[in-house]
Amino acid sequence: MIRLALKILLHQKSRSILAVVGVAVSIAGFISLLSMSFGFERSVKEYYTRLDGIYLVKKGSVDPLFSVIPAGLETKIAQIKGVKAVTPEVWALASTVNNRNTFGGGMFSFGLIGGVDPVATLKHTGGGVYFQGIKSGKIIEAGDSNTCLLSKKSAALYRKKVGDSLEMDGQNYKVKGLYETGSVFLDNAIIIRLNEAKIRYGREGQVSSYCVSLLPGYKEEDVSKSLLTTFPDAGIRRNSTWMDDYKGILGDVGSFVDAIAFFAIAICIIVVLNTMISNIQDRKRDLGILTAEGWNISDMALLVIFESSILSLCGGIIGLLCSFGIYIVLKQILPFAPFINSTLIFEALLMTLIVGLIGGLLPLFKLRSLRASEILRSL
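Below the sequence we write its predicted structure tokens.
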């Protein structure tokens, strides 16, 4: 019966090819959209996972970039039991970098400025995420003046190397080192000295946050409680709380992608359905011959299901292969890496089989409406 189904589909080449192409495009779009959604979610989670320790911020602030709290609290924070190191930080957005709009370099290429205290930063394990990620050049030091660290991604964007001058909001900084963290979010920051950031961005007597690392054996929950007791007007941000704050955004992205995925499935079903109904309508003579040879409605129904399943499976496999090509292209142009795993591939193939079944079962109502006498009259 499979051989007969293939023969029938090959006889209707144009219609079958169009159906396969329609399914392939839908499946490729389905996989590509989900891979982008999964990739974005992984990038967000990776970003906050890399931010070790606890961040003391303004109460209610979702991120240090939007926080302003008094400076000079590091001594009091360091006295709390379990605290290993404290680094005051200033975070701001530059209006111009390299004499151009900071949002002109594409998605996630904004000019994020991070002001840190080099001496305090070195007290953290490994010297913190940016100092750890130095690939060429050196870290900024306490005695430096107008120096900065630039990510390798930003260096490529602005065409800079170690030793070059970089303009930020009208001030020139010497690129002292290039770093790479592997996170699309972290690799946007331009790191300068804390005092220079305070002066440049109007934060005299203020900082954005305090990065607090812990001594071995102490739990973040316990130290967080002590910090909030000592600073009741402040807020705490750490891995778990940040992810909770961004669940809404990730959920909205997921809902949008799910809606488009549902639309892709609907297109698949419509394409296969239209093809199978047209095939049945145009093949009354063939069905009459099969009826004369002793075929019943059940036999013909099984044939129709085989045909629709073959169309869907061929389209699904082609769409899956196309999605790998799209994945390679997206990986080059997107700031974060799309993510395809075996589960996504299995779901896509399962979807094609379901589409094939639905595309075969629904036309059976058309087939059942044809009386045997009507079929035989078509001979």
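Residues 32 and 326 are 7 Å apart (CA to CA).
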